[in-house]
Amino acid sequence: MQINKNIAISDSGFIFNPSTGDSFSTNQVGMEIIRLLKENLSKEEVIAGVVSKFNVDEATVEKDLADFALMLNNFQLVINHE
Amino acid sequence: MSKLSYERPFIQKLNTGSMNKFGTKTEFAPVSHLDGVAVKRLTAEYGSPLFVISERQIRKNCQNANRAFKTRYPKIQFAWSYKTNYLDAVCNVFHQEGSWAEVVSVFEYNKALRNGVPGNNIIFNGPDKSVEDLQLAVDNNSLIHIDHFDELYSLVELLSGGKQKARVAIRVNMDTGIYPMWDRFGFNYENGQAWNAINKIMAHSELELVGLHCHIGTYMLSTSAYATAAYKLCDLAHNIKLKYNLAVQYVDLGGGFASSNTLKGSYLQGADIIPTIDDYAEAITSTVLNANFKQEDLPTIILESGRALIDDAAWLVGSVLASKRLSDGRRATVVDFGVNLLFNAFWYDYKISPAQDFTHHTEDMALYGPLCMNIDCIRESVNLPLLNKGDQLVVHKVGAYNMTQWLQFIQMRPNVVLIDMDGNTHLIRERETVDTIIQQEKMPEYLKKK
Q1: Per residue in B237-291, pLDDT tens?
Q2: Using alpha carbons only, how large is chain B's radius of gyration in Å?
Q3: Looking at the structure, do residues B245 and B107 belong to the same domain, yes or no?
Q4: Which of B5, B306, B431, B442 is the most buried (most CB within 10 A)?
């Protein structure tokens, strides 16, 4: 899964998609996941990245990431969604 | 380096549109303490889900209602509506505040007796009173509110030839300008049925007509309907005085005062549209005072208010079981309390708050209970913070009817705790177990496992 390259994201979690004109807001964990996805990391690497930064276990992140990825895909913010 | 606190990743599409003239929703302000007791402490000690009742709020409501009526009228008597919440501890708080008991079945009647309510302070309402029930009420000198002619004839037959007398009133139904009209209970005023019943009672010396009763509906948003009801009861009282030279001792306006819960489909919040207890008091007492009774004939006004006195004195604390996504993208949160415990969720949009701190992010979600039944929905759409498994929620204003209409269905009923005036907690109803349920069952011998 890759984030669309032209997606702009601010430090406060404001997301803008210039190709559709849609804007979104996300929280701190969402921002971190999007940042890691922008680095073309694998799902496992994204999970490890979140676990290293936040006080959470791997299983929780895996479950939440699956749901978050679904929403990113639904909002047309990703390409090649698994 | 310590790690940052985790919150489920969240993304929300931003939509431009008209500003909300009611401002931002604030339903998600955390409620971590109930009457000064930490929610976490309560659930650690008594489990989840858990009903929590505030003795302080009950007394406050009672005293406020008494003040509203007694400052306007000299003879006021409240009677606690057992069906609204008949946990003994709750009833006894009301009785300590001076309330009589208003019951609608022999089960409730016996509960009132067990709670030490003197028989002559029990009002026996309702359409279901067997001959045995009537005899019990007569023996205890209770106030029998006759619901239909069959009951009247049963009572006459029961007392005929004996020396006992029954203190009776009739329940009157009437058009007070509201819909639906509750004409299934009692005798109708407009078509003369009520007057007919009164004449029949007066023809029997074993029946002592002491009052007139009505109960015009529930969650009444109109005070003028009470004024109309009081006017019609006073009109009957005047006619009784005129024809029989008898001053009835009381007019009983029943209950039905609204609580501040929000009805489903209501545009405005309940708290913004309901009359205050003073509004109800003003409508009722003014009508009776202006009804031209002689001072010595002024009847006592009895009130059987339930919902308005107990709803905001109880909370339901529960926990999140799961968080999931529905097929249309909506968030669904599954909690450990359902319509089995919150029967009134079928017509109230209950206010629900998280019991712990969250960030400013919130999302719309459906809130489902734990039952494996599609109807088990507490809120079809509610805006709450990002909830995770194990997070706790507080449902507000659940004191009326939920702890009497709750179902032992799929799940068993949980502990109920009372927080007293000093902030101490008391378990007033123990959670059910499998033994609670099966002790009433009988197994035919041939089906027993060999």
Answers
A1: 999 999 999 999 999 999 999 999 999 988 888 888 899 999 999 999 999 999 9
A2: 25
A3: yes
A4: B306
Q: What is the pTM of this model?
A: 0.92
Map residue B106 onto helix, strand or coil.
Answer: helix
Q: What is the ipTM of this complex?
A: 0.94
Which member of A22, A24, A29 has the closest CB to residue B6? Answer: A29
The verdict on B41 and B106 lying in the same domain is: no
CA B327 to chain centroid, in Å, comes to 37
Quick one: B170 and B193 in the same domain? yes
Domain count, chain B: 2
Co-location of B263 and B360 in the same domain: no
Co-location of B241 and B173 in the same domain: yes
Q: Which domain holds residue B357?
A: 33-52+312-432
Q: How far is CA A14 from CA A22, B10, B55, in A?
A: 11, 12, 47
Rounded Cα gap, residues B30 and A9, in angstroms: 30
Chain B interface, mutation test: which of A35, A71, A76, most B Cβ atoms within 10 Å? Answer: A71
Torsion of CA A15, A17, A21, A23, to 10 degrees: -20
Give B13's contacts in chain A (Cβ within 8 Å).
Answer: 22-24, 75
Contact list in B for residue A26 (CB cut-off 8 A) is 9-12
Domain co-membership, B418 together with B281: no
Partner B contacted by A7 (CB < 8 A):
no
